[in-house]
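Moderator note: this is an archived Q&A kept for reference. The question asked for a predicted structure of one protein chain; the sequence and the answer are reproduced below.
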Amino acid sequence: GFETTAVFDQKTDEFVIQTPSLTATKWWIGGAAATATHSVVFARLVTNGKDHGVHSFIVQLRDQESGRLLPGVLIGDCGEKMGRHGVDNGWVQFNGVRIPRVQMLSRYAQVERDGTYKAPPKPQLAYGALLAGRGMMVMDSSLSLRLATTIAIRYGAIRRQFFKKGNSGEEEVLMNYQTHQFRLLPLLAGSYMIHFAARRLQGLFRTVRAELSEGNLKNLQDAHATSAGLKACATWICHNGIDTCRQCLGGHGYSAYSGLSKLFNDFAVMCTWEGDNTILCLQTARYLLTSLAKVSKGKQARGSVAYFNDAATLMRLHANAKNVDGMLCLDELTRAMRWRSVFVTSAVGKLIQQLRKSGASGTDASNRCSQDLVRATKAHCYAYMAESAVEAIAAAPSSLQSVLKEVAALFLLFHMEDDVGTFLEGGFLAPSQVPLLREAVRLLCRRVREQAVPLVDAFNISDRVLNSPFGRYDGDVYRDYFYNYVRGAPNATGKAPYYDSHVRALVHEPSRKIDTKENPKGIPLGI
């Protein structure tokens, strides 16, 4: 559990911040290692010998003039990292650091001069602080995926490889190959879908903040669960997608100048920052189970899970498509995503109940179904993204709606095919419809490919921000790469400084002959 303590000293009207053990050390605190002068510290509040749980305190770390650590504060750098080398992440320990009572953040909970503790009207009010960070990470996932897909798609649109049969002219561009389209275009669609979801989430946060100011918590739990699940799904999609984009550059993707290796390394922290993704999925899944259980008892679900109110109707749905065109309707695909969410959540809920009846504890039953709980969260988040897309596209200019619908449908159908087993298991799809599903994905890849370059150009990312020769707007990739990056790099040409000391001796090392009994052909062998 949480170990750092803030014990109130009534005599001095101060809190004493203490790190009681090594495991209570604060890790990976951004800016702490060398820069930050103050920090908001989470610690267990103790007054009059009673523990009131975790609260927030403003603690000064360094003298603002000299930059030296204050007495009782011990800080060090976390060392070499995978990425984000410009951020001085540090570890922090406190040994009897005293702060005035007024430096406890007291919007909802207060400590009086005599040590009397006034609890917040509702403990859940503290959750509001987590929402903004997770919401930003969902939007950052869209932004980072836009960067990656812009680089890969622009390069794929100018890079030529292999002649078509009977074609003696130019070689074919990579983006015209189906395998390249399957790798990149669902990711391009994903950057749009995550953006739609992030915008909708921002609207929810504005509503929740306004409600919290009035002590209204009706949407807080939904916002907390939705942001947790979306943060996990969006960052997973983005991080995996960046590496796919890197691989689509071929050998050049291994170059640091591509911009993708740094983007991959810098983004990796998002999958564990502000909560490990798997743990966040489990939190969201608990909310999904609770919401579906309420509906089964005749109560109404609200917010992102409002479609649970139609669970009985959704479970009776089947795909009606009789041809490929029937697979392309965005409204039908949204219903398919809702169906999957209800089906998976209902199935894991029943499985947990069965385990409980057989004698398993609640914790053990959940643990034995934890992977199914993660699947339930993913299913819900894809339903949320589908709904967000429908809402955003309806508000878009009519001239853009057709292509945006194809982008959204490609994303949903691609992931529907990836999880086709679930749709077959629950009877939503018939086996005869699976070929239609796959052909629909192929069809949309061809259609979206025609708009792929305009779709990344629409992100309006300048070459300066993109910082990759392979994603240049004008397509002049190789000239820029060679003259401005590779050839202009320090020590890129000329004699190696270690040639005389190491290479020359190897080049001029005399060969020695191995005994012919061991080497019958008498082949000269080096060292």
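Archived answer notes: The radius of gyration is 29 Å.
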